Amino acid sequence: MLKVEVVTPEKRVWSGEAKMVLARTLEGDLGILSDHAPLLGVLADGTVSIKAADGSVNDFVINGGFISVSKNRVSILGEAEAVKN
Amino acid sequence: MGAQLRIYRRRMRSVKATKKITKAMELISASRIVKAQQKVAASSPYANELTRAVSAVASLSSTNHPLTTASANPKRAAVLIITADRGMAGAYSNAAIKEGDQLVTLLQSRGLEVNSYLVGRKGINFYKFRNRKITASWSGFSDNPTYSHAKEVSDSLIAAFIADAQTDLNGVDELHIIYTEFKSMITQTPEAKRMLPLEVVESVTTAGLLPMYEFEPNAGEVLNALLPRYIQARVFNAMLQSAASEHAARRRAMKSATDNADDLIKSLTRLANAARQAEITQEISEIVGGADALASASAGSE
Q1: What number is the ipTM of this complex?
Q2: Interface of chain A against chain B, CB under 8 Å?
Q3: CATH tag for B44-250 (out of 3.40.50.620, 3.40.1380.10, 2.102.10.10, 2.30.30.100)
Q4: CATH 1.20.1250.20, domain A2-83, yes or no
Q5: Angle B292-B293-B299 (CA atoms, 0-180°, nearest 5)?
Q6: For the segment B18-77, what is each residue's pLDDT rounded down to a tens digit?
Q7: pTM
Q8: Which residue of A has its CA nearest to B57?
């Protein structure tokens, strides 16, 4: 299980447990499962989708941001996010 | 009613009206402090993650970034002072401006020119009145700043930092910020911090060892994208803390104004009572005197 947080400068948008996180970095699409190697990536504009532990899928539109992964903690930092379930 | 009494009553009415206003402002500020504090708290997860990431990149890679390297021969510095848009907040704005003056003196003694960047109408007016040069200023959001405001301010600061200070008059080699730190409901202190060039060794945030990160696309690129956002987050945090401090300072100032009004009303009530009593005493003695004179006049005629 991954502990995922989606944060913007103004608030924490989403946090919870997830099975998988799909994001697009500048190099291309990236899927993160548990026990992923520590990673710091620059996100391209686009959608980050989080498959939550209860099976629901949460999509977030990110305009410029970062993803950081370490020890099964995933943080997605965006400047402005819009939820699109 | 005697003239003296009427004057006291009139002054009491005006003080009571003022007290109502200051009391209302006190209550409004008190409720806004809580909101401002919540905003500071809400912005901290983002700021913490960003700080972790910046220290990870900076300590794990040997990339040299213009934002982290100090100029060997600094020529000019930028000072950003965050003040309030409105008054009625005691010494809040003046304390920040004074702290700024001290910093400017210090920088000038190091032989640097200083460019002033101001946030808040109070600071702008202070500088304009004294004919000091303002490089750039922003106002209208001091009590409720949003991230886009912070972005606007920090983008122009970063642009000034990246410009070459030796050739460009707006270019700077150092970037300092002065804001009012919200320590508690009763303590807020103006703080001067150097933002750029970064002092990256921030051991407070690194709980334990940092993992060996992989970077996508590469460390330099990540740092390029991280640093401007890190500055924006720092400026945003400074603005939010200043906003909370502003409300706290205003609440305190309005509380003491209300207390003063109470004292004033109390002493005016005493004076009015004394004036009324004196009036009654005088009337009685006039009546008694008149009756006495009548009595002795009629006694003499018989």
Answers
A1: 0.84
A2: 5, 7-12, 25-27, 30, 37-42, 64, 66, 68, 70-71, 75, 77, 79
A3: 3.40.1380.10
A4: no
A5: 90
A6: 999 999 999 999 999 999 999 999 988 888 888 888 877 777 666 677 777 777 788 899
A7: 0.85
A8: A40
